Amino acid sequence: MAVRFTVIKRCSSSHARRGRLHTPHGTVETPVFMPVGTQASVKAMNPHELLEIGAEMVLSNTYHLFLRPGHELVEAAGGLHRFMQWPRAILTDSGGFQVFSLSPLRRIREEGVSFRSHISGETFFLSPEKAVEIQNALGADVIMAFDECPPYPAEREYVAESLERTLRWAERCRAAHRRPEDQALFAIVQGGMELDLRQRAVDRLVEMDFPGYAIGGLSVGEPKELMYEILEFTAPRLPWDKPRYLMGVGAPEDLVEGVWRGVDMFDCVLPTRIARNGTVWTKRGKLVIRNAACAWDFRPLDPECDCYACRHFTRAYIRHLLKAGEILGLRLTTYHNLYFLTRLMRDIRTAIEEDRLAEFRNEFYRAFGNGNGREDGEGGR
User: Which residue in 141, 267, 297, 376 is the catalytic one?
Assistant: First the structure.
């Protein structure tokens, strides 16, 4: 098998588990957050810096690499690992979400999806078979089945029809997969906000016996309480001995809640996106570094953080860089945010190992708040 997953500790107070994902490019300690390198690059970071912060697995995107530079070029370069000089594990998304969210004009058929490139306007066609072919060429350790991600809100009839198509596409992806010995193909559980459809997706996909399962169609605009409800229902119904991946979720409180409900893997563009806009996470909540309050603040971004940015630079200096349009400013905020999430996951793993995740969760919320915009220095939850 391309990947093996081992559960080494189960939390006594929740569905959380501590595990290891063994891949052709090293062992990934779980629960894990994967920085997103959509176009074979994590924005503002080089591979050495990612290794320095402790990243063990990154994500790249099939849709974007298909359009530019093309999977044939990446394959000729020796595959994605060599092309981007990343020695550890890589996961590639199937491109389905981008087809449905970025393409201004698209047509969904049973065969696949015709869409126009958001770059050039040129028309392309992506089928389950083509999505797997591209990912086989890219050479990631974990690849994803091609699916349709329904919007929120959506009519139940549409979600049910979309799910059945996604299930048929999953079977076609499995049949098209040409590198099972060194690439693990994960299926994606859809079903919108309908619990019975989520159960239908779990039942059918588990029957197909994929080496791992993702939970898709969340964090698409629904209230967080609803996301947690769907997650609470879905994650524990997936096989105990297979990795569970929650797609596109990366706010600190969502990582804590996802792990609590049994998720092993996460990814999101959020930490790098908000960093470029001048916002960082600290143990005491969010900090908008562009704010005037930071102009004469000579403390680190987070006095409780030991990352490179916090060890060497002040809020005043980083704010100056951002206001002056200096690239170093957004590089430092990006470094810090990715380090923050990497350290958070490391601390969560330790808490599970020591069977004190419930205590850790309470301590996290007392310090960080509930994630609804509380600024650094304000009160607790």
Answer: 267
